Hints:
223 residues
Amino acid sequence: MSDDATVGRRPLRWWAIALVLLAIAALAFAVGRFSTFGAQGPGTPGTDSPEAGFARDMQVHHAQAIQMAMEIYRETDDDELRVLAYDIATGQAGQRGEMYDWLVQWGLSQSGGPMMQWMDASGESHAHGGDGEPMTDDEAREAMGMATDAELAALEEATGQAADCLFLELMIRHHEGAIPMADALLELGTDPRALQVAGSIEAGQTAEIDAMRSMQSRLGCTG
């Protein structure tokens, strides 16, 4: 098949995954609304609760993972990496939609106090900056393993093996930043569904880190 035909298919793949992500997010939102409708009560998490902080911060974290996964899905020619990117994008889109709905059902704002502040009670030292003050959003994003604007731009511009290896490097670091957040909620939280999702994130992203390290070795990524 000609290169022109191959290039012509890529936009279809891009729109296909975009539509899947929208459908998953909408389904998660709808399921959450019907399953938790009328669930507010004395035990509902408050705005300063670990559950609310986790839901807010993890939505931000997931949004960037989805962005990076969709970028490499469109760019990579590696079938195994494309499958992983699809799984990350769709899985985290569904979780993000559900966490958005938790806050809706709890009657809470989608934004709150400083990022990661809810983790203080877990004894996680990275919840504060070096002077003991709450982290700035930039400091929190770094602690959460998130990519900088410059790194995202580099990923968009990269091609071939360089793009694959940069994505794996950034996503491994990204996942490593999510696991302490999930661990903190498992320690501090009480809402059964939130704890279930946190456990799923911890287990799933740990397994994906192992898979990505294996891909780095196979692709000959260095640095």
